Amino acid sequence: MAEIEISVFQRQCWDRRIGDQATLVRETQALEVERNAAQATIHWLFTTQQARVKLERLYPCNSA
Predict the structure, then answer these.
(1) Domain boundaries in the chain?
(2) What is the pLDDT of residues 17-44, one digit of tens each?
(3) Percentages of the chain per state (helix, strand, coil), in multiples of 5
(4) Is residue 62 scored above 70 in pLDDT?
(5) CA–CA separation, 28 vs 37, rounded Å?
């Protein structure tokens, strides 16, 4: 999920050169407040079970 949020930030405010760290922090915080206020959610395109099948190599099921 972190990768998805980073992608959103990349598209919305990190798509240009930002002159200093203070501006970066301020813009990032503003976007975070906006997304939290909107209660932004992730709309998954597959179920957990489908993900386990597709990503079994990365996330093996530990059923012992």
Answers:
(1) 2-54
(2) 888 999 989 988 998 898 889 898 888 7
(3) 55, 0, 45
(4) no
(5) 14
Distance between CA 17 and CA 28 in Å, rounded?
13
Pair of tokens at residue 1: 């999920």
Q: How many CA atoms lie within 13 Å of 16's alpha carbon, on the beta-carbon side?
A: 6
26 vs 55: CA distance, rounded Å = 37
Angle at which helices 21-37 and 2-12 pack, to 10 degrees? 110
pLDDT of residue 1: 66
Apex CA 60: angle with CA 59 and CA 64, to 5°? 140
| Distance, CA of 10 to CA of 33 (rounded, Å) | 16
Q: Distance between CA atoms of 34 and 42, rounded to whole angstroms?
A: 15
Q: Which residue has the tokens 């993900």?
A: 51
